[in-house]
Amino acid sequence: MIKINQMLHTGIIVADLQRSRDFYEGLLGLSPSDKRPPLSFEGVWYDIGINQLHLMVVPNPYSEVVHPAHGGRDYHVAFSVDDVLPITAALDSAGVEYTMSMSGRAAVFCRDPDGNALEFSAVK
Predict the structure, then answer these.
(1) Domain-by-domain residue ranges, the chain?
(2) Strand order in 117-121's β-sheet?
(3) N or C: which end of the chain has fewer CB within 10 A?
């Protein structure tokens, strides 16, 4: 049997690194990590608690995929937040569309500029 200790990072594909950095750093408030080594492609890493989010500028094999309207029904990255109200206010202010969790949980789903689904969940 395989024993998994923890999840280390999630990598997502982006097309325009500056546009993505504006979203993840400007809107979401993440700070770039200095842990990313030189690689053969552009990207940025973000430390989030004990985990990381890796943005990778590589050819997107999913470019023709039609994503569901609700990000909770798609591959997604989930972030723990204290309260979803500041998230919805920030998304409203930035003109980013979102949906609330269909389960009734305090969770918000949106998509980044490349269509990657993100969840912000107020886990108690």
Answers:
(1) 9-59+68-121
(2) 76-80, 117-121, 107-111, 98-100
(3) N
